[in-house]
Amino acid sequence: MKYHFDELINRKNTGCVKWDKAFPACDKDILPLWVADMDFPCAEAIQQALKEKVDEQIYGYNTGFTPAYRQAVCGWFSKRFDWEIDPDTIFYAGGVVPAIAYLLEIMSEEGDGVIISTPVYYPFRKKIEATKRVVVENPLINEHGMYRIDFDDLEAKMARNDVKGMILCSPHNPVGRIWTKEELLKIVTLAKKYDKWIISDEIHCDLVQKDYEHQPLLKLAPEAKDRIVVCTAPSKSFNLAGLQNSNIIICNEKWQKKWTSYVMERLSLNGPNSFAIAATIAAYTKEDSEQWLADVNAYVDENDAFARACIQQYLPEAIISPRQGTYLLWVDVRAYCEDEKQLEETMLKEGLILDEGYLFGEAGKGFERINLACPRSIVETCVKRLCDALHK
């Protein structure tokens, strides 16, 4: 490993939501392992690209998605996933969550049903409800921490006339599944059978354990490109969320025109800022950035092994889901505390700010989501506090 991530970098009072949110008063120092960003410094190549942009001294209007930018995005996914993207199908949004809101406006009408596989990333539900669509849950089947899709239920929901499509989380946040090729193709088959669309959130695609491989949905099912939109971003992979840039892959020409009309013309959201462009190109084209990402994945795997071993030793009745992708640990602690509000209060007393499982839906009650993308010493303190709190 070129990069090592044990250094503690003080992010307090820097305006970062992870550390500077207004947390409840607590007798202990706050330890936030909730929102999904990393407490790691960015790759040197990205830092250098941003410094060079600063040195230009003038920060006027930029030209947006240049051929060099589009080629950087296409080159990354070609090299990493053997997925060939048409550069003209890349559209800008300031993040995957706002992109989902735009897509719901473009691809459905008020009152339409949209499927989500719960427990799942909670902004999905929020954006469906905010756009006056209807959440249709396809609960995942939990087999002692290992989750799988209930395809009988999914087909029943797909068959409904009021349901227009599905938001797929791939890799899945929070349960950590990397969906297999067979699982993904079954989803596409159902979408084709019942004429539904799929919005595939693949923002965690680069954050994968060494024994697993992410499958881009459009690569697997190019024949279904007119019913699939894939949401990607450098933000999770390279810790660039504050630069607010994502790349939305839209092949359907009707939706492209609607995106242009609604997002670009009506909302005037035409492209990323100059610093996001520089950082994204450096992330996707520099060997140093790729090395950094490999080292992050290795370090997170080590954090996972450490946390898993400690929790299993001191909380033997807790169930930890296998983490195939993301840098998030999903832990079932219902054996120690069944009431989700009491569990949250218990964590707060220890100064632990985690993403409480109930946020992800009814099926998440009694779970904790722990962000492992931080120095080992922070993980050690978190696990100790977690075990102490639940023993009490």
TrEMBL record:
The answer to whether the entry has keyword Manganese is no
Aminotransferase class I/classII large domain location = 31-385
Q: Which GO terms describe its molecular function?
A: transaminase activity
- Which EC class heads this enzyme's classification? lyase
Q: Which keywords, in A-to-Z order, does the entry hold?
A: Aminotransferase, Lyase, Pyridoxal phosphate, Transferase
Listed EC numbers: 4.4.1.13
Keyword Transferase listed? The answer is yes
CC cofactor: pyridoxal 5'-phosphate
Show the Pfam families listed in the entry.
Aminotran_1_2
Family matches, as PANTHER family:
PROTEIN MALY
> Which family does the similarity line name?
Belongs to the class-II pyridoxal-phosphate-dependent aminotransferase family. MalY/PatB cystathionine beta-lyase subfamily.
Name by which UniProt lists this protein: cysteine-S-conjugate beta-lyase
Q: Which organism is it from?
A: Amedibacillus hominis
The major lineage groups are:
Bacteria, Bacillati, Bacillota, Erysipelotrichia, Erysipelotrichales
